[in-house]
């Protein structure tokens, strides 16, 4: 009987298995590094896109704030003139035309309209984490807080204006308002002219003084709160634009 000898393959050494393991590990690890690097590049690109969008919002905000500062300071002066006319009870009839003009022109809302598109995206999607530069992140958060405070202040002022209109309807006959032209470009206020036919609905001294007092409070509100906050917020917006451009090498 013929006996067949079995062939034996040589056993692989431990170093061979170790080498295969290292090669596999390196392949997986390199793949992980490549994927992580790719994700970082994507996130850095998105971060830069957010900053470019933020610059657009800030540019819009500074324009709106500058317009509101001009409007606010003009309203301050207009209210100051109006209250002086109202307090001058002895000459109220002679000043009626001017009172109508001043009241119609300057009793207006603060028209604050800040851009929040980028802010909404960053907040709602949790993408504030993409902003790696802590100084930029802190400056953006601070600007948002100031913006919210400014909007609250403006809303409070506009509420006072709405309250003032209740007394206004007891003193003024809107039929005598004489508009000169719509929307002065420098102040975004409609401008009214004198109407020599204008007559007040009442000459009650207490009512007119009360209206003058309300006008004075609005004038002080603009002077002490609205205009200074608008100016500070515009400065913050300008500083933030400079910071973002510097940190991200943007033009």
Any low-confidence stretches, pLDDT <50, length ≥5? none
Largest sheet: 2 strands, antiparallel
Quaternary status? single chain
Please tell me the overall pLDDT: 86
Shape: rod-shaped
Structural class: mainly alpha
Helix and strand run: HHHHEEH
Distance between the termini: 93 Å
Beta-strand percentage range? under 5%
The Rg value, from CA coordinates, equals 34 Å
The count of strands amounts to: 2
Count of helical regions: 5
Task: Give the strand order of the largest sheet, numbering strands 1, 2, ... along the chain.
Answer: 1-2
Proportion of residues in helical segments: 55-70%
Distinctive features:
single chain, 251 residues, mainly alpha, 2 strands, rod-shaped
Question: What do these coordinates show?
Answer:
With about 250 residues, the protein is mainly alpha-helical. Helix content is about 70%, strand content about 5%. It has a two-stranded antiparallel ribbon with strand order 1-2. A hairpin with a 4-residue loop joins strand 1 (about 180-185) and strand 2 (about 190-195). Helix 1 crosses helix 3 (about 115-125).
């Amino acid at each position: 009987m013929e006996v067949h000898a079995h062939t034996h393959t040589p056993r692989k050494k431990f170093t061979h298995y170790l080498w295969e393991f290292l090669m596999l590990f390196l392949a997986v690890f390199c793949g992980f590094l490549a994927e992580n690097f790719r994700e970082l590049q994507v996130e850095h690109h998105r971060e830069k896109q957010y900053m470019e969008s933020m610059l657009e919002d800030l540019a819009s905000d500074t324009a709106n704030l500058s317009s509101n500062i001009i409007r606010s300071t003009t309203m301050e002066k207009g209210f100051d003139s109006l209250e002086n006319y109202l307090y001058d009870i002895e000459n109220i009839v002679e000043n009626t035309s001017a009172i109508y003009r001043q009241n119609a022109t300057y009793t207006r809302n603060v028209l604050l309209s800040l851009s929040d598109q980028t802010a909404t995206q960053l907040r709602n999607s949790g993408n504030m984490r993409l902003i790696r530069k802590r100084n930029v992140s802190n400056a953006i958060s601070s600007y948002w807080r100031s913006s919210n405070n400014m909007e609250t202040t403006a809303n409070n002022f506009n509420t006072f204006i709405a309250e003032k209109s209740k007394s206004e309807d007891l003193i003024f006959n809107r039929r005598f308002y004489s508009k000169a032209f719509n929307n002065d470009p420098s102040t975004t206020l409609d401008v009214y002219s004198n109407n020599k036919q204008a007559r007040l609905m009442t000459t009650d001294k207490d009512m007119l003084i009360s209206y003058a007092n309300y006008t004075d409070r609005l004038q002080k509100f603009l002077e002490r709160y609205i205009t200074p906050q608008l100016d500070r917020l515009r400065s913050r917006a300008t500083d933030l634009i400079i910071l973002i451009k510097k940190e991200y090498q943007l033009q």
